[in-house]
Amino acid sequence: MFSGFIFDVEGTLVDCVPQTLKSLQEAIERYGPPVPYNTLQLYSGLDGDQTLQLVVPDAAEAVRKDILAMQGKIYREKYLNDVHSFEGIRDVFQSLVRQGGRIALATDCKGPELKHYLSLLDVDEFITAKACGDDVEHGKPDPRLIGLALRKLGLTGSRAVMVGDTPYDAEAALEAGASAAGVLTGGFSSEALLEAGCFAVQEELRALLPSLVTANPRPNP
After folding, report:
1. Strand, helix or coil at 84?
2. What angle separates helix 144-153 from helix 167-175, to the nearest 10 degrees?
3. How far apart are CA 46 and CA 61, in angstroms?
4. What is the largest distance, in Å, between two alpha-carbon atoms of the chain?
5. Is 51 helix (H, G, I), strand (E, B) or coil?
6. Domain 4-15+84-214: assigned CATH number
7. What is d(CA 195, CA 75) in angstroms, rounded to the nearest whole number?
8. Which residues contact 206 (CB under 8 A, 6 or more apart)?
9. pLDDT-based confidence at residue 138 (cuts at 50, 70, 90)
């Protein structure tokens, strides 16, 4: 069994991907031509600035910063209070801790959003460490967020698994030396998550729990 379990938050523990993408779509439309929702879905979970470089390639850096600031404002004012946590998260966390596991959160979100998500989840007593968007400059698939979570847990990557809902979570985990597992609650297919390196994929976190408990940690390099 793994010693450390690192969880993404948005789309993995909290059902907020549609709201996040809609707020980004609305923010982009205030600065230029609209971008289809399905296009934005392809980059859900990717670092925000990298996403904008792909979907609005002509936007200057200053414009991208303005779009991201507007997206955050729209999300907080229009969508944040309507999101909810997925069912069974507390039970999964409790089970892992009872079996000797240590839990960390590794999420690009920060500030009021993260505070609100934690209030929805009600799992603070099971969390050993948090690494969030306030701690690093770049989001996933950059591995530094996962690396920070590992350091806070006091573990090497070979003893930990990252659980997320996007290929970018898996890529960040593998680059940091950890294993990766995935859930389908973020809108990506099982094939996409497996191709990104997940050793197991399930519909939601409760169904993934047996794989997390029985999987063997990665051998030390």
Report:
1. strand
2. 60
3. 17
4. 51
5. helix
6. 3.40.50.1000
7. 31
8. 87, 88, 91, 92
9. confident
- pTM of the predicted structure, to 2 decimals: 0.94
Q: Which of 138, 137, 197 is nearest to 164 (CA)?
A: 197
List CB contacts of 201: < 8 A, sequence separation 6 or more. 181, 182, 183, 184, 190, 193, 194, 208
Question: Is 139's pLDDT higher than 70?
Answer: yes
In the predicted structure, residue 221 carries a pLDDT above the cut 70: no
Q: d(Cα 78, Cα 29) in Å, to the nearest integer?
A: 16
Return all residues near 126 (Cβ < 8 A) that are at least 6 apart.
90, 93, 94, 96, 97, 103
pLDDT (tens digit per residue) in 183-216 = 999 999 999 999 999 999 999 999 999 999 998 7
**pLDDT for 26-46, tens place per residue?**
999 999 899 999 999 999 999
The dihedral through the CA atoms of 13, 38, 82, 112 has a sign that is: positive
Written as one letter, the residue type at 156 is T
Q: Where are the domains of the chain?
A: 4-15+84-214, 17-82
Name the class of domain 17-82: mainly alpha
